[in-house]
Every structure is written in structure tokens, then in C-alpha cells.
Specification:
Elements: E1 4-11, E2 22-26, E3 29-36, H1 39-59, E4 70-74, E5 87-88, E6 91-92, E7 94-95, E8 98-101, E9 104-107, H2 113-133, H3 139-144
Parallel strand pairs: 4-7
Antiparallel strand pairs: 1-3, 1-4, 2-3, 5-6, 8-9
């Protein structure tokens, strides 16, 4: 089995994660990347990071919003996804089949389908607005839009 990988999203967190993961901080979002070829070590690394995060949260009078936190387990189309139970105390983190990362929507098999579907909806809406606005606006105004 190849390396296991998923992204965990946590909002508004400074870079305090240990060497078992790779945090990516962009604006007000933080993503934590985990990768390991051994399932037991992979799970242990996640537990260590969560213990570290929750210790930091308690020390700073903060708490992790489990409703806004999710994870994506990336896999190939041929491999089946492993069902993880990730959380702290009685709070579990939701598994998601896709996520938006730096403006790109990725699914758990790293295909472009979700991203293309979202772009098609946005482009369709924009075309509709421009098509309906052409009766009220000049050609130069439409070109600016």
C-alpha cells in the first residue's frame, strides 16, 4: 500500500504543529498535511498532533470548532478509502470526499470533476447575466464586464 494522505482544515491557528505533519497557513485557514506508509504510525501521528493542538488551545483559552473542521483522505480510484475515526475526546472530525484548497476544489481521488462542475455553474451564471444585460448596456460596457 502506498502512502496515506489527507488534509485537515483548522481555522485561525498559529504554526505550532510538530514534525509529524506539514502545516500550511494561508490567510485565516490552516491545513495540516499528514502522510505515512504505515497505518499505525499514521494514526499515531494524527493523535500526537491533536494532543498538541488541544494543549495549545487550552493554554490560549481557545477551542477547536469541530463543525468547521473536516478531513479528506486522498486515495487512488482503484484503492478503497480507509474509514478513520479522527477526533479528540468525544468530538469527531467529519470525513469529506472533497475540499476547496487555495481556490481549487479537489476530491479524494484528485480528479478535476468537482472543480470543473463548480466553474461551469459560475460561468453559466455569468453568461446568463451578460446575455440579459445586452439589451440594457452598450457593447463597450459589456466588454468591460
Amino acid at each position: 500500500m502506498g502512502p496515506l494522505l489527507f488534509i485537515l482544515y483548522i481555522n485561525d491557528l498559529p504554526k505550532i504543529i510538530n514534525k509529524t505533519s506539514a502545516p500550511i497557513i494561508f490567510a485565516d485557514d490552516t491545513s495540516i498535511l499528514f502522510a505515512h506508509s504505515n497505518l499505525i504510525d499514521f494514526n499515531n501521528n494524527i493523535c500526537i498532533v491533536f494532543a498538541t493542538l488541544n494543549k495549545w488551545f487550552r493554554a490560549n483559552h481557545l477551542s477547536l470548532n469541530f463543525n468547521k473542521t473536516n478531513y479528506v483522505h486522498f486515495t487512488t480510484k482503484r484503492n478503497t478509502s480507509i474509514n478513520f475515526k479522527i477526533g479528540f475526546n468525544s468530538n469527531l472530525i467529519t470525513n469529506s470526499s472533497y475540499t476547496k484548497f487555495l481556490g481549487v476544489t479537489m476530491d479524494n481521488t484528485l480528479s478535476w470533476n468537482n472543480h470543473i462542475d463548480l466553474l461551469m455553474k459560475k460561468l453559466s451564471t455569468a453568461c446568463y447575466v451578460i446575455r440579459n444585460a445586452k439589451t440594457y448596456m452598450s457593447a463597450s460596457s459589456l466588454k468591460m464586464i
